[in-house]
Amino acid sequence: MNQQSCTCGNEAVREQAAQWFSRSRDGALGADQQAQLDAWLAQHAQHQYEYDLLAQLWDAADVLPRARLEALCKEDPVRQLPRRGFVQQALAAGIVVVAVGLSWFGWQQHQLNYQDQLQTALGERRQLELPDGSHLELNGRTQLRVDFSVGQRRIELAAGEVMFSVAHDSTRPFVVRTANGTVTVTGTRFDVRLDPARTRVAVEQGSVRVQGRDDSQALLTAGLGSQIDAQGKVAGPYAIDAAALTAWRNGKLVFNDAPLSEVVEEVSRYREQPLRVAAGKVAALRLSSTFSSDDTDALLRALPSILPVAIRTHADGSKEIISK
Questions:
Q1: Per-residue DSSP letters for 2-53?
Q2: Looking at 17-21, 146-150, 276-280, 310-314, which range is the least confident one?
Q3: Which CATH number fits domain 251-323: 3.40.50.2020, 3.50.50.60, 3.20.20.140, 3.55.50.30?
């Protein structure tokens, strides 16, 4: 049998494999029947593949919890499948149920046990959905590890910033851990940012519990934020502008009466080399404006027309904001 004829007759091959497998399960094949089976298996690789697939599914039945397997049999998933002649009759109580059960079992295990490591480069923003339905938006220069288990959904944030939209699951808390402390929820929408000296948390929807290494805590609801300092101490809740703090998701930097020192710190996160500002009065100047995080040089070009400052370029290519 050539490859083309076998490919075109996959349906027939599956039925033949099911017939042979059903006969072998009913009892030992006679010498003539075994010889016929061996010849059929050797006739084409697809024959062996289909037969082995049925054997693997049958053997895998032991993997399924007995209660779930019985439930699948009661549900009779075969009735929902297209009719396949002998396959439906021979496998109704066995292999097809196991196949459906394995799909359910694999899906459940993927939901409960899942690990991954994610990283974004400078200027990169990335969105993804986790197996539990939670949605993550990663800012640039972010590093995190996902570790889902039966009792908990855990994120280890090593660097950067993430907006979390967490799927509700009261049986498995969603925990974001940084070097400073943890943020725990069952279902909500919030932003976590890890800076060198602190972890900042901003809640857009729902509520979260922030806990520091020293066991200090804060309960945040929508419109509130907090931070955990380098010593692991949690600050009390304070009002935030969630839209401004998470404008990075749309490639924007929003400053509302922010001191220039804070502006420089924020802009530096989006540049290869950190931006600096001269100490003293210049650092205390305040700025209200919106810029693109994808073009921070545009901000530097505009700044001298907004504030009494100048931009100095150093020999190493880094830039500093100084008094005009």
A1: -HHHHHHTHHHHHHHHHHHHHHHHHSPPPHHHHHHHHHHHHH-HHHHHHHHH
A2: 17-21
A3: 3.55.50.30
